[in-house]
Amino acid sequence: MRSLRIRVTFGCGVLALMASGTALAACSAKDFAIEAFAVKLQQGSGQPRFSMKGQLVNHCTEAAAAQIRIDAKDAAGKVLSSKQGWPAGTSNIEPGKAVDFDLGRLFRYQPDMSDYTVLVSDAKTW
After folding, report:
1. What is the DSSP letter of 125?
2. Could you point out which of 12, 23, 53, 78 has its C-alpha 20 to 30 Å from the C-alpha of 102?
3. How far apart are CA 53 and CA 56, in angstroms?
4. What's the CATH code of the domain at 90?
């Protein structure tokens, strides 16, 4: 665990934050990848439901978790709905490992939806 030392200099209005001890390379959103993402519309009784499945892969050197965001867009590229989720919940993903996800249940079908994008929006260590 890293300890922080906070130094506030009132005369110049400067706030300095300094970490003591060994600095650890923190994982960031760019250290994760999304693979095999596919969107399918499932017909059934009532309103159609989405399946938005993929895999979130940790390419960081330490165990960490990532949040993903899926945007559902119309043909002109306008975002109609955007949802975020943590595929591993409050668990870290080991380096080089992947977790499956399906965030389709978060979306409500709209007939204008025609394009879907997914990205890693945040990363943290639990």
Report:
1. -
2. 78
3. 10
4. 2.60.40.10
Q: What are the b/e assignments for 3-17, b being 16+ CB within 10 Å?
A: eeeeeeeeeeeeeee
For 35, the domain range is 25-124
The encoded tokens of residue 92 equal 């870290």
Number of alpha helices (DSSP H) and beta strands (DSSP E) in the chain = 0, 8
- Record the pTM: 0.76
Position 44 scores a pLDDT of 76
Which tokens belong to 77? 């590229």
Identity of the residue numbered 37: F
Segment 77-98, tens digit of pLDDT: 999 999 999 999 999 999 999 9
Low-confidence residues in the chain, pLDDT < 50: 1-24
Tally of structural domains, the chain: 1
